Amino acid sequence: MKKLSSLLILGLILLAVPAQAGDLGNPAQMLQQGHSNFGVSADYLISQRFKDYALERRFSNDGSNFGYKSAEMKEQSKFLATATYGVRDWLNVFGRFGTITGGKYIEHDLKTGAEWQARFQNQFVWAAGAKAKVWERPGGPGLLLTAQYLRYDDRKVKEWKNISDGAGYNAQTFYDVQDKINYYWQTDLVATAYWTCGMFTPYVGGGISYNEGKYTGQWITNGPNPSRIDYDASLRSNDIVTALLGLDLNLGHNFLLNMQADFLARNELSLGLSYNF
User: Fold this and answer.
1) What is the DSSP letter of 197?
2) pLDDT of residue 26
3) What is the pLDDT of residues 109-147, one digit of tens each?
4) Which string of DSSP letters, residue by residue, matches 25-94?
5) Does pTM surpass 0.85?
6) What confidence score (pLDDT) does residue 12 get?
7) How confident is the model at residue 146, as a pLDDT?
8) Phi and psi (nearest 5°) for 28?
9) Rounded to an integer, what distance in angstroms lies between the CA atom of residue 125 and that of residue 277?
């Protein structure tokens, strides 16, 4: 009962912090108390949709209006280093840092049908979390609970183009564009079932993934007598249910290889290599 209470408290604490499942890193591997692990990973986000939102536009003549949009992020990568420590045989904590690179932001106007595309600037990203072993049969199946908080700030959005008619209208030709994601945070709580068979540990999992972000921008017309448009929108998850499928491979000499695919909340592929100390 004491162990179960600790697991529940851990999950609630991590989800209550304001802030992907390939982001969770070697999900089926647990360290013994006092041991450490260091790894590197590469994640490729195929697509992730946001809930439809209202974009506020404020003009330099003090007027304002709203546009109603749907949006998604796609084709971006994360390269992360992860350090993990075994607090108990059943409880590990980890921290992650690295860079998020590339990627496109696709915005669709729900009223006019116009579609715009922009590119993201590279930015620093970090994460923290914990893994807890809920149950395991020696030499057989087991169940883990993993929680993570991930975040980045001040990520610039650039190279806006209207791609709805194929003409590739470039906004920067006529405007000085200063757009960014002020912040983006994401929480994941995932249950993972695994079965170790020699050097192979296949696993499947599912849970909840929720994210929020803040988007702001300013477009100023080029030339004499410039006018300004300020933009403001709040971003939230379109889907909160996540599923994953993966494989941990024990390479020997304390090296571990992890491969994973994520579905539903986002479509993502991940590959990681780590070393146990």
Assistant:
1) B
2) 55
3) 999 999 999 999 999 999 999 999 999 988 789 999 999
4) -STT--PPTT-EEEEEEEEEEEEEEEEEEEEEEEETTS-EEEEEEEEEEEEEEEEEEEEEEEEETTEEEE
5) yes
6) 34
7) 95
8) -95, 10
9) 25
CA 267, CA 221: separation in Å to the nearest integer? 37
Burial class (CB in 10 A: 0-12, 13-18, 19+), 148: buried
How would you class 200 by CB atoms within 10 Å of its CB: exposed for 0-12, middle for 13-18, buried for 19 or more? exposed
User: What value does the mean pLDDT take over residues 43-56?
Assistant: 96
DSSP assigned state of 13:
H
Give the whole-angstrom CA distance, residue 30 versus residue 66: 49
Is the pLDDT at 16 greater than 90? The verdict is: no
Task: Assign 177 to helix, strand or coil.
Answer: strand
Domain ranges of the chain: 2-276
One CATH from 3.40.50, 2.60.40, 2.40.10, 2.40.128 for 2-276: 2.40.128
CA dihedral 34, 88, 21, 79 (to 10 degrees): -20
- Compute the distance between CA of residue 155 and CA of residue 178 in angstroms, rounded to an integer: 11
| Exposure on the CB side of residue 187, measured as CA atoms within 13 A | 14
**Angle at Cα 274 formed by Cα 9 and Cα 254, nearest 5°?**
105
Element (H, E) at 7: helix 2-16
Per-residue model confidence as pLDDT tens digits over 239-255: 999 999 999 999 999 99
Give the pair of three-digit tokens for residue 27.
Answer: 């999900």
Instruction: Of 189, 139, 184, 149, give the one whose Cα is nearest residue 27.
Output: 189
